[in-house]
UniProtKB/TrEMBL annotation:
This protein's record includes keyword Transcription regulation: no
Xref: Pfam families: EGF_3 (PF12947), TSP_3 (PF02412)
Single GO term (MF): calcium ion binding
Region Disordered, annotated ranges: 157-199, 243-286
Keywords carried by this UniProt record: Calcium, Disulfide bond, EGF-like domain, Repeat, Signal
Residue stretches of each TSP type- repeat: 133-168, 192-227
Name of the protein this chain belongs to: Thrombospondin II
């Protein structure tokens, strides 16, 4: 009869090996987490490859035949998944490194040792400024700097409070200094810029940036490259206050943005949209 060698001293296999009896002999196989020929098995350091499968913000610690994962300081989880701890309301920072945030703008009142930008001291401790803008780079945020651009003029009397211009040149006399005026040679106190291209509407040949000059655009302030004009009144559908009723004068007596030609003041479903332009006049849509 066959002798089961595995019954005595694990068949001569390593303590970290599995002994399997075979007819007239036995096989030795290192168990998971170990490597070798079965007679001699050495531990595999799982942490050497891909942090042992632990999360990027976890510490992998090798153990006999396995490894453990533990989240780093400032993180919480099981080591396989680690999430950043959040500072409590009224505080800012990263993980466990938190300090008071008096103005609740996400930046702490004092400098912290953590690396995140939200660990840097708030440049306006008592005035919210989540962007931390600092035009003159003096360490005092624009929101609380009485001379934000550092040109020697208080913001209250500076015609370009965020761009240094000690000479205060204002060629078009619109109260906006030339260096910050989006139309420096055309007076435009409002500084309106529909397409946001940096050129004020007063001096922009294509206000809505739809590729058509204002003089040839049937909606000069609303981009409409196809120039659709369903009622043929010279006003594009996108800016026509009665797109389905010809009204070249665009009259709107009650100034409700609905032209007189299509304004009957009837709103059957009381949803704030008059029947003449309501796609469901009998069913309120909010």
């Amino acid at each position: 009869t066959d002798v089961d060698e595995c019954l005595v001293a694990n068949g001569g296999c390593d303590a970290n090996a599995l002994c399997s009896n075979t007819p007239g002999s036995r096989d030795c196989t290192c168990t998971s987490g170990f490597t070798g020929n079965g007679l001699a098995c050495t531990d595999v350091d799982e942490c050497l490859v891909a942090n042992g499968g632990c999360h990027a913000n976890a510490q992998c610690t090798n153990t006999a035949g396995s490894r453990t994962c533990s989240c780093l300081a400032g993180y919480t989880g099981d080591g396989q998944v680690c999430t950043l701890l959040q500072c409590p309301v009224g505080f800012a920072g990263q993980g466990q490194d938190c300090a008071q945030d008096s103005d609740l703008d996400g930046f702490p009142d004092t400098e912290l040792s953590c690396s995140s930008k939200y660990c840097r001291k708030d440049n306006c401790v008592n005035r919210p400024n989540s962007g931390q803008e600092d035009a003159d780079g003096d360490g005092i945020g624009d929101a609380c700097d009485t001379d934000a651009d550092g040109d020697g003029l208080l913001d209250t009397s500076d015609n370009c409070p965020l761009i240094a211009n000690p000479g205060q040149q204002d060629g078009d006399s619109d109260t906006h200094g030339d260096v910050c005026d989006n139309c420096p040679v055309v007076s435009n106190p409002s500084q309106n810029d529909v397409d946001g291209d940096g050129a004020g509407d007063k001096c922009d040949d294509d206000i809505d940036n739809d590729g058509l000059l204002n003089t040839a655009d049937n909606c000069p302030k609303t981009a409409n490259g196809n120039q659709a004009d369903g009622d043929g009144d010279g006003f594009g559908d996108l800016c026509d206050n009665c797109p389905q009723h010809t009204n070249p004068g665009q009259e709107d007596a009650d100034e409700d943005l609905l032209g007189d030609a299509c304004d009957d003041n009837i709103d059957s479903d009381s949803d704030g949209v008059e029947d003449s332009v309501d796609n469901c006049p009998n069913v309120a849509q909010w």
